[in-house]
Amino acid sequence: MNITIYDVAREANVSMATVSRVVNGNPNVKPTTRKKVLEVIERLGYRPNAVARGLASKKTTTVGVILPDVSSTLVAELARGIEDIATMYKYNIILSNSDQNMDKELHLLNTMLGKQVDGIVFMGGNIEEAHVAEFEKSPVPIVLAGSIEKSQTIPSVNIDYEQAAYDATEAFIQKGHEKIAFLIGPLREPINAEKKLKGYKKALQDANIPYHEEWVIEGDYTYDSGLEAFERLLELDNKPTAIFAGSDEMALGIVHGAQDKGYHVPQDVEVISSDSTRLALMVRPQLTSVVQPLYDIGAVAMRLLTKYMNKEEVTDHTVVLPHRIEQRNSTK
C-alpha cells in the first residue's frame, strides 16, 4: 500500500501542511515537531510523490538532456559535468541519445516537453533552422552544450573552435612543418566547416603556407576514419609531415595506421588530436591534444540552465570557455 502525506500527518498528529514544510526543508517548523515528523516518515517509509508535487508547484525538478551518443568518451565526460551540477541543485535528469538524427532530436525534444521537464540541455552537431524554431517555441529554457547555431540566439557553452584549430596548426608551424594535413569532422557541422576549417586555413595563410585541398580529409570522428585517412594521405605524392585530427579517436586511428605501415610517431609524422579525452592518454605515444574542457562545458551549461529556470540574472547567454594545447609524446 502506498503511504501518503495524509498517513504521515495522521500518525504524527500534525497537519499535512506541516508535513509538507518538513519534506521541503522549510525552516518554519519547531525542531521537536520536525523530529517527530521525520521519525514517522522513516517508520512508514513515506516517499513524496514527485508528480503530485510538480503539479502543485508547476515544477518537476527534472531536466531533459539530449546527447548524440552517451557511449562516446567525449559525450560521457560532458554528461558527467551536467549530472554533477544537476545533483548539486537537486534536479533529476532524463537522459536520451539522439544518434545525430534530426527527426529523432525533434521527437525527443517534444517528448521531454511532454514529460513537463523544467529545462533542457541539448548537444548536437548540426543545428538546423528547424531545431531553432522548436527551441524558440519551447515553454522551458534550453541551453546548448558543445554545440553552435548560426543565429546565436540560443544560450550555449563552447570553446573558441576557430582559435583552437588555429593554435594547433600554428603549433606545427612553430616546429617547422609546412606540410600539415587536417583530418576534420563532418563538414555538414558548422563547428567544422565554419570554425575549425577557417582556423586551420588562417594559420596557414598567416605563415604564408599554401593551402592544399587534398590535405583536408573529412572523417566522422571514429577510429576507422583515422585509419582510412592515413591510407589516403600515404597515396599522395606530396605527403604531409604533420596531421591535426578533429577528435581523439581519429587521431588514434592515424597513429595506429602509421605504425601499421612502419612509420614512427612522432619521428616520421607528428600528430595533434582534439578534445583530450582519456583516449589521448591510453595510446602510445600519448597524444598531444587541444584540451577541450568537456566536463566544464557540461557543468557550466547545466548551471546556466539553472539560472534560467530559477529566473536568475544572466549577463551573457553565450559562454566561451578557455582551451589549451597539452604537449605529450605524439609531437617532438
UniProtKB/TrEMBL annotation:
Source taxon at top rank: Bacteria
Keyword field: Activator, DNA-binding, Repressor, Transcription, Transcription regulation
InterPro entries in the record: CcpA, HTH_LacI, LacI/GalR-like_sensor, Lambda_DNA-bd_dom_sf, Peripla_BP_I
Classification via SMART domains: HTH_LACI (SM00354)
Stored NCBIfam families: ccpA
Job description of the protein: Global transcriptional regulator of carbon catabolite repression (CCR) and carbon catabolite activation (CCA), which ensures optimal energy usage under diverse conditions.
Name of this protein: Catabolite control protein A
Organism the protein comes from: Cytobacillus stercorigallinarum
Taxonomic classification: Bacteria, Bacillati, Bacillota, Bacilli, Bacillales
